[in-house]
Structure formats: C-alpha cells, structure tokens
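Whether sequence alone determines local backbone shape is best considered at the level of individual chains. The sequence in question and its structure tokens are set out directly beneath this paragraph.

===
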Amino acid sequence: MADALVIGANGFIGSHLVDALKADGHRVRAFDRFSSREPSFDTDGVEIVRGEFLSRSDLDAAVAGMDLVFHFLSTTTPATAQNDPTLDIRTNVAQTVEMLESCAAAGVGHFYFASTGGAIYGAQDRAEYVETDPTLPVSPYAIGKLTIENYLRYFQAVRGLRSTALRISNPYGTRQHHNKKQGLIPIALRQIAVGEPVVRFGDGSMVRDYIFVNDVVRMITRMVGRRHEHEVYNLGSGRGLTVSEVLASLRRVTGVDFEEQVRPVPVTFVDRVVLDIGRYAAEFGRPGFESLDDGVRATWNGILEERDATR
C-alpha cells in the first residue's frame, strides 16, 4: 500500500477520492484549506493537512514522504477563468509548476493530474475523441489544463517525475460545492430545489459525456499500483447525452416540471464532446457505469439534505 496525498481533498472529486483510496488500504493525507467547513469525506484515519495551495512552503510540507500525489484542486472554474484568464495563469498554472518542483525534489513516485476531457479537444466535429486527437482548446480554463499537461512532460523528462494526466469528461454527483457553479446537473438541481427556473444554453441539442463521480473515482483507483502504458487517459462514460435528455432525467427524478430559461450558448462552448475510453479499457478493464437517473437521484438526495440542513 502507498502513502497517497490528495490535493483538493475537501473538494468534489477529491473528497470521494480520499474515501476510495482509504478503502483500498492506502495511507491517505488530505490537503486543503478546510476553512469554511468540516471535511466532506466520510473516512476516519485520514491525515488532515490544512494549508494554502498558493504557499510553496505548505506544498513542500504536504508532499514530503509521499509515494503518490493526486492534484484535484483548481483555483478557477471555466467561467472565472474566462472572466480573468490571467488569474488562471497566475494561480492554477504557475502554482502547479511550483508543486511539480516540490514533488520532484521530494522524490514523489507518481503524480496524477485532473485535466479536462471536454474543452481541451475543442470543436472538431468528431463523434468521439481519443487521446491522440489534436488538442485545440479555445477557453482559458482548458488552455491552462493543457499547459499543465505539457509541464508534466517537462518534469518527467528533466526531473524524472512520473505523471499521468486524467482527461475527465463531465463529472457530477454528491458534494459538488454550490459556490463553484460548475456543471449542468448540480446547478440545475439546485435551481429546482429552490423553485427557480433552470438555465438552458441553446436549443438543448448540445452533447456531453456525463459520468457519475463514484464511477470516475473507481476508474482512477483501478489505475493505482499498475503499469501505465500512456501518459494521458480519457475518463468518461463513452456515451453522449444531449442537454434535453439530461433535463428530461431531472424531471423524472425530481417530479418537478420546472421552467427553462434559455440563454445563448457561450462562444467558448463546443457543440459535442464524447470521450473514447478504449485506451483505458484496454489496460485497466472496461468499467461499469451508474445509469443517468440513478446518478441524478443520488445527487438530488444530497442536495435536498444539504438544503434541509441549512433551514
């Protein structure tokens, strides 16, 4: 078993990853600010390290003695990065390079980076995207992710830091923070929970590859301790769903016939992104996936519990 550090351990995917790594028997260190609330992961026996991602000394201390580092923290969202591209460069990109320096100096065995499997490919009118397709991002958020992927290659070549970029499609599920305002499913469910109209971009035909958070975490933990043939992997369901299909699922699960508020599609959005996960399946086996309705139901129940706890 390994000593594993999760950066962004109190976040959406990071908190689920903490639980899964601990369940697999790893010794887990959880790094985050933990400033506004208690840890969102459920597992006991986790070493909690409170620190600032923007502090090099905090990162140096966090990565010390670690075999594995999972970088699942982002200081921006697609929206905030677009509003201020330099913020993404100054914080996400620059500070991740600082962390890679820390990891290389500390002798970390393997570094996993949560990249994006959507906007990183850009608009190329393909039915599915494979890892060897060109990367043509136009959004600052995806440009930053691709820049970090390139730095992973640099640190592997020059400093010997082994790394893997995980191009995750559109994850959804419990523990998505409301202040992030990211992801169609959690945003829409929160609007439904408070009786507000659901915002829909465009005519509902936009296609995305949605994956339930527990499924993507299982894909990640299945990789740990096994040989990796490649440096980049798509992690998604491999199935495309339109916005209209997702909204139909939300109506079935919640039982609410909510109003839709239509807005223009942002210019940085691509029309269709579905990931080919054949590379992952060939090496680690083809995973099973939660149905959309079951995943939405788990997410909805979590949001209702969160809403009721604040009343």
Observations:
- The chain is about 40% helix and 15% strand.
- The chain has a mean pLDDT of 94.
